[in-house]
Amino acid sequence: xxxxxxxxxxxxxxxxxxxxxxxxxxLGWYDKDGTHLVFLQSxxxxxxxGALLWLPNRKKSDELRIRDGFLIxxxxxxxxxxxxxxxxxxxxxxxxSVLEAVFESMSGLTTTGATVLTxxxxxxxxxLYYRQQLxxxxxxxxxxxxxxxxxVLGVGGMQLFRAETPGPMKNNKLTPRITETAKALWFIxxxxxxxxxxxxxxxxMDLFDAIGHxxxxxxxxxxxxxxxxxxxxxxxxxxxxxxxFMLIAGIxxxxxxxxxxxxxxxxxxxxxxxxxxxxxxxxxxxxxxxxLIYQGTFVDISDSIRMGLFQVISIxxxxxxxxxxxxxWPGLLPVLLIIGSFVGGCAGSTAGGMKVIRxxxxxxxxxxxxxxxLHPNAVLPIKLNKRPVPDNVINAVWGFFAxxxxxxxxxxxxxxxxxxxIITAFSATAACLNNLGPGLGDVAHNYQSISDSGKWxxxxxxxxxRLELFSLLVVLTPAFWKR
Length: 483
What we know:
The protein is 65% helix and 1% strand. It has 24 helices and 2 strands. The protein has helices at 3-19, 22-31, 35-54, 66-84, 86-90, 98-109, 125-140, 142-148, 150-153, 158-164, 178-203, 207-218, 236-249, 253-262, 266-270, 272-295, 301-316, 333-343, 356-374, 391-417, 422-433, 452-466, 470-473, 478-481, and strands at residues 383-384, 387-388. It has a two-stranded antiparallel ribbon with strand order 1-2.
């Protein structure tokens, strides 16, 4: 391990994060609600910690190794969750314990959207803005931002990029230089956020809500500035804007780059993962809307269509916005939607879940094994976008799937041991592992009633899901620490 280099990068990342505390500081000062002092103290604490780590090691320059990259990513998410909890803990409104503050911070940064807060409509605007901003930073990943400025650090950014970005194929670069790739992704992310905020504002939100909800929409996070989430606005136009940008954020950002760079939509049409993603949404939407109409859940058919489509897109992309309490919907719908969150969005998107490409590869591998029973000697390659997928990628996907199932079952059982009933335990685990947010049972609206041990378990589940298992679990193995 290159300890000094790791400390240098961690310090620099904390210094970058400290800058994000300035906008809510200024907002609190403008509103004269006293929260500016909370953010001032938090900013000084994070900045000081970052400087203490960076300054003694600032002249250390070398290429990061694979282990260094994984350790930096895991340590930074842990340190960031603790640092991000400071404003929640120091503020008098809301009055949160250390555990609750860490839970809220972890939920925001991992774009989970699970909250222990109630009465959002009465919280200071600076706190509300800070929650939304946490999700926006966590969406594309502040580490990807650091990769964009890796030359300043004097370290290679590829190992950080591989450990941070989602999906089974992490060596694909949009540009010859990884720093240029990271910059391209962030510029697209920023541009889409500005566009989303503008459309929200035009659709009827005030500027504060428009900015806040654009942050959580593009991050696929689900935090809102109101207890009723998007349902607070009761606007078909706002719902439509949200659905459009949830879909955009759920698609691989590499395809957005290619579409903009080459001014063509051909890459969306040709991509098998996008087609599978849209097919899954279409099937879930058909089942959901049909059931809502058949059961007469809403008086008007138009409401059944709007609520059904919105909730399917929100849950399947792991955003977690709500316009209706889907946990009380009839029949299999609540469970079906939670199952849909396991698939999640496309690789390279800001969505959670296992990712569509992995599910697609699993199904194709299953089909290949059936075909092999009929044709034992045949060569049956698995192809995506007309290109054969290497067997090592298939094996990695199977390993990921096995770990995902084991993690889900194990964490669900631990949640039951912590005092939750079976529906609450497993839906909360699914919601946090998939970075979804809302669950069923006691966590349908918030996580306030979960025991302290349960909150720690779910905080671990959020981080595990955000880092897609391997990046976190590899650091916990004895082999990782052997020389």
